């Protein structure tokens, strides 16, 4: 096992489940001390206890005070902060005419404002370490969307613009900022969507979504974690201000099939 992150401190939002959990486990396996930020205390605490150098900090990323606290705790506990994987996200389905103020504030809050607050406090901590790496989770739906996800898609597109801007502001400080755009990833969020659509055949529904991807399957959380770790490693020292697809070829595919 590589130890690319010995001596590094990584903070992962949405770290208790799904993509976040897989990335927490991967950072830990490669030597990092990890701060798990999530609203799910039971899952977060259990994960932290299972890893050698990890803590859980209950965090609602929509709240600036929570973002400040989790970064402060990371610095106080482990001596600094080198990596932020700003990953917390939710999806809520609605036609635009049915979107409520509560829906808008919650979805934009988690999916976009959460990145703003986390970066606001992570960057000064990284500056004190002489640099760092930030990865924000966007989505393929920042580029091309399904139906009934107008606010979700907007939040993910806003994330791409913010990532590019922050990268320009802080490149001279050796702070790199990139975004990832996953396709359909086998996470609790995806399984909840499959269950809502077809409660009698969750596995079959996920398999059918997988067949829409050229690789013939949905993405795994571990697939995404591998990309995040690469972007946070010294191997990616020249990469900043960019977005990276991890979608099994989905965005390369036209919705047209021809006979063999």
Explain what the structure shows.
- There is one protein chain.
- The protein is α/β, with parallel strands linked by helices and 260 residues long.
- The chain folds into 2 domains: 9-182 and 221-248, NAD(P)-binding Rossmann-like Domain (Rossmann fold, 3-Layer(aba) Sandwich), CATH 3.40.50; 184-218, no CATH class.
- The chain contains 8 helices and 7 strands.
- The chain has helices spanning 18-29, 41-50, 64-78, 101-129, 150-170, 188-197, 202-210, 221-232, and strands spanning 9-13, 33-38, 54-58, 83-86, 132-137, 175-182, 243-246.
- It has a 7-stranded parallel β-sheet with strand order 3-2-1-4-5-6-7, with helices on both faces.
- Helix 4 (101-129) links the parallel strand 4 (83-86) and strand 5.
- Helix 1 (18-29) crosses helix 8 (221-232).
- It is globular, with a radius of gyration of 18 Å.
- The protein starts with 8 loop residues before the first strand and ends in a 14-residue tail after the last strand.
- 44% of the residues are buried.
- The model has no long low-confidence stretch (mean pLDDT 95).
